[in-house]
Specification:
The complex is a heterodimer of chains A (294) and B (574). Chain A has five helices and twelve strands. Chain A is of the alpha+beta class. The longest helix of chain A has 21 residues. In chain B, a hairpin with a 5-residue loop joins β17 and β18. In chain B, strands 14-13-20-12-21-22-11-23-24-25 form a ten-stranded mixed sheet. A six-stranded antiparallel barrel of chain B has the order 1-2-5-4-3-6. A three-stranded antiparallel sheet of chain B has the order 16-18-17, with helices on one face. Chain B is α/β, with parallel strands linked by helices and 574 residues long. The chains are: A alpha+beta (294), B alpha/beta (574).
Chain lengths: 294, 574
């Protein structure tokens, strides 16, 4: 018998502490010379897909020593085709990280997901993994064109180009000398591409600056986006294309506190995903009624 | 049944109103009628009928207005919501519990449409009382319940709207056509119609086919069950010109009769008060007026006219042109002479400090008498061609002869207009009160604000009030029209069971007189096109937006379809 430990446990989590990032070990530029680059505007490839996911922690349960994290994960895709941006049917899943068998709570059904450990951090990681899996699943269903994912490139894509973009920069990829270029990068400019190795994957990456109004008053780091793509692809071409793509999709600071990196269509997609997960109040009410306590 | 959407759950669904989400390619417009089925195990099935009174489209998922630019550029996805608000017109059976969100919504067609608009209740022992009143937006014929027009359950029509664009007269004549020729009014052949033509001469071609009538309009008449023909039996009456005795009309010469009252009729029928329509300005003249009216009645008793014979006007005081009859009595042959005679009776001979006839002055002060005479004199110019002693009187008599009588007022002075309307209505109402005519009488009077103003009192307002309050049981039905209902006596408007609104002025539409219209209708009253009106009838809780066909009769000289057949030419020549 599971007992309710806490609702919305996400509130308990500590903000990740920004570690003093060390200088990178190795640096391999893929383009030279090392200076800001611009590119002629070019049309977006068609179809152009955006995939993003969302997770929501709903409750922490306990059964004796065992702990489980109930949550919802959702992933969806947008396709831009013929001048319109359309939402494709999203996938939503309720999962219980740490559960052994499915758990039914009223009309809700949580599928079991294995956890690495029993501590809260591992449970969270399990939920995150479930979300990433779902994103991958959605991405697999999209063929041709170009796929843009929120976050680093974590999978291979057959039959089409793939771009990942990173909004916040915990890790330094450039030595100090090259890093100076980031300070002077103007909106619509990018750095040359450089090689990144991660978990046995070879990627090409570059930084670009998004427009952020009003100009001048922003801190030097604002509006910086790092983009990456598998090294085996036509990365130079994609890097030039990214200058026509991301600045056009940048959100406006009036509308989004995470502007401009939080791209406008992704913001809309996240909103739609959140909606499909169902009302959190209703879910909480059900959990409380069926599991008692809180 | 055509499914159009579902009842929305995000907004309250109540038994009286709910919101509908339109799905797919569905089309739902203002005024469309819908039906929803509800079910509760304790009650069983319930059907909600309603009318759409608000429709909206919006982008869901947009947080800012400017997000639409992004959506148009294809930078963010949006979902388009198409929603409609429905006001429930009827619940069958009457169980007032709310419909379930998510219930399918269907367009009300055929039998459902009839239920939604209470057409099933429009009948009596003798049969259907559905009177065609125009077309709904969806092209179906709209009906009004005749029993609320002919006086059985209610009576009178009131039409409001801006002059020129609201088509008040057009709709009124269309309604009359429907009354007289649809066959729904069973004693239609006995019904009589009195139309007052107040502006232009557009009612003077009611009996002529319209050459601008299109094939489409003909089909519209056919669908209404009405012949696309002009009115069959119409008499046209116009006041005579001030010089000579020909009808004072510009565009129509043939088939129009001049009308006037002779002096004896004027006195016998007691028409004098209709010259003094502004009662508030005459306080103490009222008694004297009633007294003189009685004296004139007594004077004209047993006289045949047209001239009025008087015995007590000494020769030395006579104006020059006056003549005598064989018995030496003075013969009054014009309204001016009658006024001079009354002046003589009230103020005495012109020469000297004469005193009036005691039997006439009724102990009134000389100041009062003089004021009375001044007013009477002022009316000579306005009335002398309408009240005369030179030929036998032939005032309009709507109860005799043709079915429809058009009486022209357009060129008369305001005082003369008041006189004609007051005299005719009084006569009609008195004869109906005495039961002298069995059929119904429909009276179309525009500019009601002039004849029954909200603020002032007057003899015509009294008659109109009488008609409004008692007329329906006597079979006298008033179809009143005005630009602004707010300026008309409340009880006259309030007694009209059928209310019609054409294009309204924005300020006027906000007045309490139009509160019976829901907001969306008040807004639309400002932009109503020609040929469309909003009609409210007692049985249906929502007004209907109606279109009515182009008149089948000409409304001006240029529209008259000339009949050049040999038959017509022969008729004209011989």
């Amino acid at each position: 018998m599971w007992r309710l430990l806490a609702l919305r446990p996400g509130g308990l989590a500590q903000e990740e502490v920004l570690k003093g990032a060390p200088e990178p070990q190795a640096f391999h530029p893929l383009e030279s010379p090392w200076e800001a680059r611009r590119a002629q505007p070019r049309p977006w490839p068609e179809p152009l897909y955006f995939v993003d996911g969302k997770e929501r922690e709903e409750a922490l349960l306990a059964q004796g020593e065992r702990v489980a994290l109930l949550g919802s994960v959702a992933a969806g895709a947008l396709v831009s085709q013929g001048g319109r941006m359309v939402l494709l049917p999203p996938a939503v899943r309720r999962v219980g990280v740490g559960l052994g068998e499915p758990l039914r709570v009223g009309e809700l059904r949580y599928e079991p997901v294995a956890a690495e450990g029993t501590d809260y951090a591992s449970l969270r990681a399990g939920l995150q993994k479930a979300r990433e899996e779902l994103e991958k699943e959605v991405a697999r269903g999209l063929s041709g064109g170009l796929l843009v994912v929120d976050g680093p490139v974590r999978f291979k894509r057959e039959g089409g180009a793939l771009l990942g973009y990173i909004k916040t920069h915990w890790v330094r990829y450039l030595p100090e000398r090259e890093e100076a270029l980031l300070q002077v990068l103007k909106p619509g400019e990018r750095t040359p591409a450089f090689r990144v190795r991660r978990q046995g994957r070879e990627l090409a990456s570059w930084y670009l600056r998004l427009p952020l109004v009003p100009e001048r008053v922003r801190p030097p780091q604002a509006g910086l986006l790092r983009v990456e793509t598998p090294l085996e692809g036509p990365f130079s071409e994609l890097a030039d294309l990214s200058l026509s793509l991301f600045p056009a999709l940048a959100s406006h600071p009036v509308k989004d506190p995470r502007a401009p990196q939080n791209l406008a269509p992704i913001g809309a997609l996240e909103w739609a995903l959140g909606r499909r997960m169902g009302s959190q109040e209703v879910v909480e009410r059900l959990l409380r009624r069926h599991l008692g306590g809180g | 049944m055509e499914r159009i959407g579902v009842v929305l759950g995000r907004r309250e669904a109540t038994p009286l109103e709910f919101w509908v989400g339109v799905e797919g390619e569905g089309l739902l417009r203002l005024d469309d009628l819908v039906v929803v089925e509800g079910f509760h195990p304790k009650v069983g099935q319930v059907r909600y009928f309603g009318m759409v009174d608000h429709v909206a489209k919006l982008h869901e998922g947009e947080a800012y207005d400017t997000d639409t630019f992004l959506a148009v550029e294809g930078r963010i996805p949006v979902s388009l919501a198409y929603v409609a608000h429905v006001s429930v017109t009827r619940i069958l059976p009457e169980e007032f519990f709310p419909p379930d969100p998510g219930s399918p919504v269907y367009l009300a067609q055929g039998e459902n449409l009839e239920l939604a608009l209470y057409y099933d209740a429009m009948k009596n022992q003798k049969g259907s009382t559905k009177l065609p009143a125009g077309f709904l937006k969806n092209g179906e014929v709209a009906y009004l319940n005749l029993e609320f027009l002919n006086g059985v359950k209610g009576g009178h029509v009131n039409i409001s709207g801006i002059s020129g664009v609201a088509a008040k007269t057009s709709y009124a004549t269309f309604l009359l056509k429907s009354l007289l020729e649809s066959g729904v009014l069973e004693d239609a052949h006995q019904a009589k119609v009195l139309l007052f033509n107040v502006k232009g001469e557009d009612l003077f071609f009611l009996d002529r086919p319209n050459n601008r009538l299109t094939e489409e309009a003909r089909r519209a008449y056919e669908r209404l069950g009405l012949p696309a023909t002009p009115f069959q039996s119409v008499a046209f009456l116009a006041p005579p010109k001030k010089e000579g005795y020909v009808p004072d009309l510009d565009t129509r010469l043939e088939g129009v009769r001049a009308y006037h009252w002779d002096l004896v009729q004027f006195c016998q029928r007691g028409l004098l008060p209709f010259l003094f329509t502004d009662r508030s300005a005459m306080t103490n003249l009222g008694f004297l007026l009633a007294h003189v009216t009685e004296r004139l009645k007594a004077l004209a008793e047993k006289q045949k006219g047209p001239h009025l014979l008087v015995e007590d006007w000494p020769e030395e005081d006579l104006p020059e042109e006056i003549s005598f009859d064989d018995l030496g009595r003075v013969r009054l042959k014009s309204f001016a002479q009658l006024v001079r005679y009354v002046e003589y009776k009230l103020l005495g001979p012109e020469t000297g400090e004469g005193e009036g006839d005691k039997r006439w002055v009724a102990r009134q002060a000389r100041g009062t008498l003089e004021a009375f005479v001044r007013r009477l004199r002022a009316s000579v110019e306005n009335l002398s061609h309408l009240v005369r002693g030179d030929r036998p009187g032939n005032p309009p008599d709507p109860l005799k002869g043709e079915q429809v009588h058009v009486v022209d007022l357009a060129k008369l002075s305001p005082q003369a207009q008041m006189f004609v309307v007051g005299s005719l209505l009084k006569d009609l109402f008195e004869r109906k009160e005495r039961g002298q005519y069995r059929g119904r009488i429909f009276i179309l009077l525009d500019e009601l604000n002039k004849y029954a103003p909200r603020e002032e009192e007057g003899p015509i307002k009294d008659i109109l009030l009488d008609i409004a309050e008692r007329g329906r049981s006597l079979g006298v039905i008033l179809m009143g029209a005005q630009q602004t209902a707010s300026e008309v006596e409340r009880r006259v408007v309030g007694n009209a069971a059928i209310r019609v609104v054409g294009r309204l002025d924005a300020a006027e539409a906000e007045r309490p007189e139009y509160r019976y219209l829901p907001t969306s209708f008040r807004q639309r009253a400002l932009i109503l096109p020609q040929g469309a009106v909003i009609l409210h009838q007692p049985e249906i809780p929502v007004p209907l937006l109606l279109h009515f066909p182009f008149p089948a009769w000409a409304t001006k000289r240029e529209e008259v379809l000339e009949d050049n057949s040999a038959e017509a030419l022969r008729r004209e020549l011989f």
